[in-house]
Amino acid sequence: HAQDSPLCQKSALKDPSSDLPEMPPCDFIPDKYKGMSKERMMQIRKQNCNPMTMKVTSYKTPAFIHQGHMQWLWDVDGKRYLDLFAGVATVSVGHCHPRVTEAAVDQLKRLWHTTNIYAYPPIHEYTEKLASHLPDPLKVIYLTNSGSEANDLAMLMARLHTGNYDIITFRGSYHGGSPQTMGLTSNSAYKYPIANGLGCTNTMCPDVFRGPWGGSHCRDSPVQTIRDCGCAQGHCMANDQYIGQLKETFATSVPSRIAAFFAEPIQGVGGAVQYPKNYLKEAYKLVRERGGVCIADEVQTGFGRTGGHFWGFQSHDVLPDIVTMAKGIGNGFPMGAVVTTAEIAASFGKGVHFNTFGGNPVACAVGSSVLDVIKEDGTQENSLHVGTYLMTELAKLRDKYEIIGDVRGKGLMIGVEMVKDKASRDPLPPDAMNEIFEDVKDMGVLIGKGGVYGQTFRIKPPMCITMDDANFFIAVFNKSIHDFMERR
Ligand SMILES: Cc1ncc(COP(=O)(O)O)c(C=O)c1O
Ligand SMILES: *[C@@H]1O[C@H](CO)[C@@H](O)[C@H](O)[C@H]1NC(C)=O
């Protein structure tokens, strides 16, 4: 099993005695790894990398990733993985996508850095192109280096523009880890016992699977929940109930005038949670009646991931006042953006806001190339096509296994919520989740975990995965759940 042999990079020739699903072939040959040992990396990781690094490390036996190409990753031993998590929904068009890499290299050779105190072509080319992807009047762009930074800026803008202070988010949401965005984030795992979240209030997440209300027609997904539905056609009682909860929040927890309502079109870290179809539309109206602006956090759902649309908010038939984005915007290059209206942008003109690296030439060249590639490669269409198929097949596994409670999402923004049993919908405990998670990795597929109780598997791959990759994952996931049930 020589690791530099090209044969080994193809799917390992099928061993007839093995019942392991066979990975689709790949003819890309990674470099042979010659760096430090895994043991040495772990030593340094424990000594010199901050303790959070170990805390967030996935797997009992961590993955030591050496190289990537499109949907594939190779570890230091030359083992190949199908990446269905994309470094947390970030690698949008494929690891080291050749055209994006070329754009970055060209720019690196020409000009690495200068800032907004001068005019340089890439930022103008890029902001015009990005603006062309958004509906009127969302045409003014601030470039940042991360999603937290983008959300911080959006909070500030909303407060300055409205003259109000209070901001509402959903329970279970993640909007960043900076001191300000920690207040938006409504998951205790990411909160610290310091004064945080002044002016931030959360409201019940309209989760039609786990929440108190929900049926079999509520959400905009190829797969509905297993819950019964007694609603008359075209009328969603769950939506009424959840909107009622939002009204209670308005009546009890915030002043009569608010600054903003922040929501992801589909909750990301929360576990691909989807809301009833008309929820955001009604919520936006209520928020605007109270003087607030509506902010769509598209950090995970943007750039074609949800398949049917370029932005997640479009499938809710709403028009936000501010849109924040990061992750997929740069295919892994650190960048983010806030897009808003000229009017809101004007309210931000009272002081000077300066960001040294935001919109640097290399980021702009990368971002611009990512937008081109999404178009040229048909990335959004692929997301819809492969994602819909994947969810339909996963729903068959849900019908077969008692511990798969829900399958949901849109395009390649997919959640598989695991339960103790379908009747209780109680979360599958962490030990069991970890067992399946590790097993799926050992069979060659990287997926993610999320949800308030860590109960949901998350599938958010580079959007270049194929139908063969989807079938391979289904076989792997099926086997890991089957084997898990046998062991119990
Ligand atoms: C929806 C959402 N918003 C904001 C953020 C924060 O982005 P960053 O980690 O780039 O600061 C994240 C990160 O996971 C996210 O998922
Ligand atoms: C799931 O696994 C079981 C047990 O190995 C097998 O009988 C079945 O055909 C598999 N189904 C799919 C869809 O792979």
Description:
Keywords: Aminotransferase, Mitochondrion, Pyridoxal phosphate, Transferase, Transit peptide. Belongs to the class-III pyridoxal-phosphate-dependent aminotransferase family. It comes from Sphaeramia orbicularis. Homotetramer. The chain has helices at residues 6-9, 38-47, 51-55, 86-89, 98-110, 121-131, 147-162, 181-184, 237-252, 279-289, 342-347, 361-376, 379-400, 430-442, 467-487; strands at residues 65-69, 72-75, 80-83, 140-144, 167-170, 200-203, 260-263, 293-297, 322-325, 336-340, 404-410, 413-418, 445-446, 448-450, 456-459. It is 35% helix and 14% strand. With 488 residues, the chain is α/β, with parallel strands linked by helices. The chain contains 15 helices and 15 strands. Residues 1-12 have low confidence and may be disordered. It folds into two domains: 1-57 and 69-82, no CATH class; 98-376, Type I PLP-dependent aspartate aminotransferase-like (Major domain) (Aspartate Aminotransferase, domain 2), CATH 3.40.640. Helix 6 (121-131) packs parallel to helix 12 and helix 14 packs across helix 15. 2-acetamido-2-deoxy-beta-D-glucopyranose binds at residues 474-475, 478-479, 482.
